[in-house]
């Protein structure tokens, strides 16, 4: 069972995503701000990070930079954000994000399917 | 004798011819002189126009020898014309990046965009336009335009659109996902209530956001109307605070207010607009206070001026942002770190409302942490 962490500052969106991903059989950890998220990534052993970009304390771009520069650079990161302009998407991908999902364009169920498909593609179970 | 007669007859004629010739010659010379003066004046004017242009102009031969540099180009390129006259770029010591760009072969292109960072790390943008000056003489004119300001405004506009989209999309995502839950089966009571509350809260966020945008547009277009009347500021504050008691209670925040009954705090103002301004200060103080914190609302007045202040023990303001707090759409990094969602419009609206009432807005930091936001208003005077 793959272990995922969701870093998302909107409590409602976070709770729905966590619930849907648990139902899909994933082990889920959550963080409501960037600082907590980064601490948990460092402390845990995650197969995938689901990362919002606009976050309190430390934003998603800084988290990507931290991950890229450290021992954790092999953990894949999927961005879940409503920042959907080309500049920000390019910047996140350049910093190592594997995929960029715009929350508003997807239902939670569609996001779960995309995550499953990504993990299958990467051979993570 | 006959020759004397002939002379006597011809002499006046010759004299007349000579006089007429002399006059025409003088007129002709005068015309030439005037033409020369006009030509000189025209050349001077042309030179003045060239020198006063905000665009930089560099004329050079096809093989790159500099023929002319106007004053704007001297500034852009950091050279003096006298030092570079007749020289090629390879013969100039330490040419600036922009000067090298001016002499970059453009081939068939008419324009070249060029940017670089100055010594202070600020990005500067230039447009270089190539115009053939004289094909016969093989001369080229390069027009250099500083487009940094245009680029900056363009970038601001794009950032603004990105910010606006994010602020709209996040509540919409909440509404969309909550509606998805409500349309599902086996919905328990709390989940249903939670989803309905989420839809309501996020719809309200969108309404507030739209209202801020409309207020700003009205302020900028001078359409933000006011109805001035005798208004008790303390009474208004009491009314506003009632709206925040529930949130404050849930988060263990105490809202303290000076005894509003001990004095009258009358101003001549628009009750609705002043309520917006005061609610903004109180809303910020509650929003940015830690759970279990304290918000203090106070009044003070002398013969001429009333002070209204809201103190909180929240994150405070970064020192470098203090001067920008009341600027449109500005959000301090400390505020963003606590609440990612915020329009950055509130304090700008407060400033406009208070200044329209003849008052001033201000901010004082608290050393231990937190802020005091205040405004002043002229006290009410009975009209005689």
Characterise this structure.
The complex is a heterodimer of chains A (125) and B (384). Chain A has a single domain (3-120), classed as Response regulator (Rossmann fold, 3-Layer(aba) Sandwich), CATH 3.40.50.2300. Chain A is built from 5 helices and 5 strands, in the order βαβαβαβαβα. With 125 residues, chain A is an alpha/beta fold. The radius of gyration of chain A is 13 Å and the shape is globular. With 384 residues, chain B is an alpha+beta fold. Chain B has 4 domains: 1-47; 53-146, PAS domain (Beta-Lactamase, 2-Layer Sandwich); 152-221, Orthogonal Bundle (Helix Hairpins), CATH 1.10.287; 229-378, Histidine kinase-like ATPase, C-terminal domain (Heat Shock Protein 90, 2-Layer Sandwich), CATH 3.30.565. Chain B contains 10 helices and 12 strands. In chain B, a hairpin with a 5-residue loop joins strand 3 (111-117) and strand 4 (123-134). The longest helix of chain B is centred in the N-terminal third of the chain and has 51 residues, at 2-52. The A-B interface holds A 9-10, 12-13, 16, 54-57, 82-85, 87-88, 102-104, 107-109 and B 158, 161-162, 165-166, 169-170, 172-174, 176-178, 180-181, 194, 198, 336-340.
CATH class of chain A: Alpha Beta
- The amount of beta strand of chain B, in percent, is 15-25%
The tally of strands of chain B reads 12
Portion of residues within helices of chain B: 40-55%
Question: What would CATH call the homologous superfamily of chain A?
Answer: Response regulator
The CATH topology of chain A corresponds to: Rossmann fold
Order of helical and strand elements of chain A = EHEHEHEHEH
Outline of chain A: globular
- The Rg value of chain A, from CA coordinates, equals 13 Å
**In DSSP terms, counting alpha (H) and pi (I) runs of 4 or more, how many helices of chain A?**
5
Count of distinct strands of chain A: 5
Radius of gyration of chain B, in Å, reads 37 Å
Unreliable stretches of chain A (pLDDT < 50, length at least 5) are none
β content of chain A, as a range? 15-25%
Q: How far apart lie the N and C ends of chain A?
A: 6 Å
Strand order in space, largest sheet of chain B: 2-1-5-4-3
Structural class of chain B: alpha+beta
The biggest beta sheet of chain A is recorded as:
5 strands, parallel
Low-confidence stretches of chain B: none
User: What's the architecture of chain A in CATH terms?
Assistant: 3-Layer(aba) Sandwich
């Amino acid at each position: 069972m793959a272990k995922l962490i969701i870093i998302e500052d909107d409590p409602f969106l976070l709770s729905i995503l966590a619930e849907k991903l648990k139902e899909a059989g994933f082990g889920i950890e959550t963080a409501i701000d960037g600082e907590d998220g980064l601490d948990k990534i460092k402390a845990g052993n995650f197969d995938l990070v689901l990362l919002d970009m606009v976050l309190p304390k430390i934003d998603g771009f800084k988290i990507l930079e931290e991950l890229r520069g450290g021992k954790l650079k092999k953990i894949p990161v999927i961005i879940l954000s409503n920042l959907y302009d080309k500049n920000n998407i390019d910047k996140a991908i350049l910093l190592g994000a594997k995929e960029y999902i715009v929350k508003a364009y997807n239902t939670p169920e569609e996001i779960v399917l995309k995550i499953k498909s990504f993990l299958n593609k990467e051979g993570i179970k | 004798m006959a020759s004397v007669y002939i002379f006597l007859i011809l002499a006046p004629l010759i004299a007349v011819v000579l006089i007429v010739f002399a006059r025409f010659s003088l007129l002709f010379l005068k015309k030439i002189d005037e033409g020369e003066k006009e030509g000189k004046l025209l050349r001077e004017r042309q030179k003045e126009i060239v020198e006063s242009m905000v665009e930089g102009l560099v004329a050079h031969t096809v093989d790159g020898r500099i023929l002319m540099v106007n004053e704007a180009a001297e500034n852009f390129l950091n050279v003096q014309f006298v030092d570079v006259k007749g020289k090629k770029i390879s013969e100039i010591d330490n040419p600036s990046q922009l000067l090298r760009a001016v002499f970059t072969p453009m081939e068939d292109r008419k324009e070249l965009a060029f940017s670089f960072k100055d010594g202070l790390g600020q990005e500067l943008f230039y447009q270089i336009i190539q115009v053939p000056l004289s094909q016969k003489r093989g001369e080229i004119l390069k027009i250099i335009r500083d487009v940094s300001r245009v680029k900056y405004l363009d970038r601001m506009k794009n950032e603004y659109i990105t910010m606006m989209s994010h602020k709209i999309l996040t509540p919409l995502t909440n509404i969309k996902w909550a509606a998805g839950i409500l349309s599902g089966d086996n919905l328990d009571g709390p989940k249903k209530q939670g989803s309905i509350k989420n839809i309501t809260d996020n719809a309200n966020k969108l309404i507030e956001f739209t209202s801020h945008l409309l207020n700003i547009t009205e302020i900028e277009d001078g359409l933000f109307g006011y109805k001035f009347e005798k208004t008790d500021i303390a009474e208004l504050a009491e009314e506003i605070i009632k709206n925040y008691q529930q949130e404050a209670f849930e988060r263990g925040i105490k809202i303290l207010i000076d005894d509003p009954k001990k004095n009258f705090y009358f101003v001549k103002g628009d009750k609705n607009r002043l309520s917006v301004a005061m609610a903004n200060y109180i809303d910020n103080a509650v929003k940015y206070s830690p759970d279990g914190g304290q918000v203090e609302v106070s009044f003070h007045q002398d013969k001429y001026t009333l002070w209204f202040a809201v103190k909180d023990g929240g994150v405070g303001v970064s020192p470098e942002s203090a001067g920008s707090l009341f600027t449109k759409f500005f959000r301090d990094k400390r505020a963003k770190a606590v609440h990612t969602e915020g329009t950055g419009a509130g304090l700008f609206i407060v400033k406009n409302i208070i200044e329209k009432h003849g008052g001033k807005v201000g901010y004082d930091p608290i050393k231990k942490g937190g802020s005091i936001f205040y405004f002043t208003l002229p006290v009410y005077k009975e009209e005689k």
